[in-house]
Every structure is written in C-alpha cells, then in structure tokens.
Specification:
Layout lengths: L2 H21 L15 E6 L12 H8 L4 E6 L6 H10 L3 H4 L15 H7 L4 E6 H6 L6 E5 L6 H12 L3 E4 L3 H9 L4 H23 L2 E6 L15 H4 E7 L10 E3 L3 H9 L16 H10 L7 H34 L1
This protein binds zinc ion.
C-alpha cells in the first residue's frame, strides 16, 4: 500500500467518523414530530409596539370576545429586525445564534421553523421583506418578497392562499415600521398606520379562517417615542402576541418570551423542536423538557456552558476514534505486507 493510498484511506475514515459523530451530538438533536393537519399563518407586523393595539379595533374585538388569546411578547436585546426574525423563527436567543446586527446578510446558522417544515414535507410560503428570505434561503416553496418598501404584501398573501394554500405561511408587512422611523412611535401617524394595518388584518384573517388556518400575529420589536428601536426599553421590547385558533384550548400566560413563539409554531404544525429552542411552547412543552434533561449535563447552568461542554466531549470522542483508526490501519498495513 502506497503512502498516498494510506493517506486517502485515513482521510475517508476521519471524514466518516466526524460526520457520524457530529450528526448525533448536540447540534442536530430534535424532538419527535407529531403530525397534525394544521395550517398556520404567522403574521409579523414589523415594528408594532404593544400600545399600538389600542388603535386596532379588530384586534381589540378579538381579545374582548375571547376569539383570540392575547399575550405580551418580550423581546431580548438587541431589539432590531434581523435578530427579531431569528428569535421568532428559530426560538434561539441572540447570544447563541450570533445574529445581532441588521448588516449580517447571512443564512441562519440555526435550524429554523421554515427549514424544519420543509424537512417534513410541509408546504411553506413567504410574503414579506427579503431579510427573512436571506435568513432561510431554501425554506420557502412559494414566495413574494419585496426589497425596498412593501405595498402589496396583503394582496400577495391573498393570491398565495388562493393559488397554493400553503400549510405554513409567513406574512410580513413593513409599513408600521417605516412610519415609526419617519415620525416616531408616539406620533399620530404611527397610530393611524396601526389602524390601517388592523383593517388589512381583518380582511386577511377572515380569509385565513375560511381556509381553516391557525393564526399568530406578533412583531419583531416596537418603536421609541421619537422613532427607532435600538434603545432597550419597554416601548421597543414589548410587542403584542395574538393567537387565533378554533381547535385549541389553551390559556397562555400574560407575558411570554419572543423565543416561545418558535416551539409553539412547531406544536401547531406537528413538526420537531430543536434543542436550540430555549423558550417554552405555549401548547405542549413536555417533549422538549425531557430532551433537554437527557442531553444537557446540568439543567441549571446557562445554555452556552452546556454547549461548550458538549463540544469538548465530542472532540475527546473524536480523538479516541482517530487513535483507534490509526492502529487499525497500521494493523491492516502489516497484514497486507
Ligand atoms: Zn423590524
């Protein structure tokens, strides 16, 4: 056996063991899927702060008549769009995902709900700003994205529902955020735009309900009184969370975390949750707690501690494998001679 053949064999063995090991360690672990036939529409009204719903009569009526469950969603720092989309769609805190700036034009390093849905043959669709598409580039069967200003988001959403009837649809209008940046979150223009969006939401939700969709309405962040949302204050980190579902009997707490939305979406769609989802599902959290207990060395320690420990253990196992492979190959070489 020549040195080149030997090196090639060693390379294949190392590659094989690396892939196998990493596939079954911390990084890829998900809960089991429990298929439902639910259709889900997630509406992210960009930049909608909590008190804006006082100017949204349709939303107010849903809450009053108990047709919708209402909670207050608390966003982590930073309260910016890209980090918000990540938290809503991966359930992973920004400290761990690393997506902490709007200028990070990267695909999500963490498996998100759209990708999990695709893996389980769920028809996905996006109707919104291209940053969401950038984060999850191969995760939407149907898409209508805009690059500068939206204006046709709701119209596009209607046509996507009529033409494709996706199982998981994201609708993401931007006008409230644009007005917030131009005039401020306490301006009359901002509250007027919230009222306009409320009208569009009414038409969209009526259509969605006719098609038996479960609907979540929420936002990535709020707005400061004088506009912008980079200061971490209640006006920027508190946003509404509305859940409209005919076949769901749950009572979510008044305050939820933004990272609770992704595992909740998973339960609605009947797809697995990932261990990166460090929030809690509002529907059923037993599976993820069980999985965390099984795979996390110390439940009370911070997530990054457990992640680092997992990486260390993986590397030690990898090293042992390499040594064993080396001796096996030496043995084979001797036998061939
Ligand atoms: Zn935003």
């Amino acid at each position: 056996m020549s040195n080149i053949q030997f090196a090639f064999l060693l390379y294949i063995l190392i590659l094989n063991s690396t892939i196998t090991l990493f596939k079954h360690t911390f990084y890829d672990i998900t809960t089991k899927n429990r298929l439902t036939n639910n259709k889900v529409c997630l509406i992210i009204v960009d930049g909608l702060r909590l008190d804006a719903i006082n100017n949204m009569p349709y939303i107010q009526n849903l809450i009053k008549t108990n047709e919708a469950k209402f909670s207050i969603s608390i966003a982590d720092n930073p309260t910016i769009s890209r980090s918000g989309y990540m938290r809503i769609l991966t359930g992973c805190p920004t400290d761990i995902s690393g997506i902490s700036s709007n200028s990070q034009h990267l695909p999500s390093p963490i498996l998100g709900v759209p990708q999990l849905a695709v893996q389980y043959n769920i028809k996905t669709a996006l109707c919104g700003y291209y940053w969401i598409y950038e984060l999850f580039p191969f995760a939407f069967y149907f898409k209508r994205i805009y690059f500068i200003r939206d204006g046709t988001t709701f119209k596009n959403a209607y046509s996507i529902i009529d033409e494709y009837e996706p199982d998981f649809l994201i609708v993401h209008p931007m006008s409230v955020d644009n007005i917030g940046h131009s005039y401020g979150g306490s301006s009359i223009f901002y509250f007027k735009e919230a009222c306009n969006i409320d009208n569009s939401l009414k038409t969209l939700c009526n259509k969605l309900q006719k098609h038996n969709y479960n609907i979540i309405i929420t936002s990535d962040h709020g707005h400061q009184n004088y506009g912008g949302h980079t200061n971490y204050e209640p006006n920027t980190f508190l946003t509404p969370f509305i859940l409209i579902s005919n076949n769901l009997n749950i009572n979510p707490p008044l305050y939820i975390k933004q990272i609770d939305i992704a595992p909740t979406l998973c339960d609605l769609l009947g797809i697995p949750k990932t261990l990166y989802m460090t929030g809690n599902s509002l529907i059923n959290n037993k599976d993820i707690v069980y999985l965390r207990r099984l795979h996390i060395y110390d439940f009370n320690r911070p997530f990054d501690y457990n992640l680092n420990l997992s990486i260390l253990i993986t590397n030690i196992i990898l090293l042992i494998h390499l040594i064993v492979y080396y001796y096996i190959i030496c043995l084979i070489k001797k036998l061939i001679k």
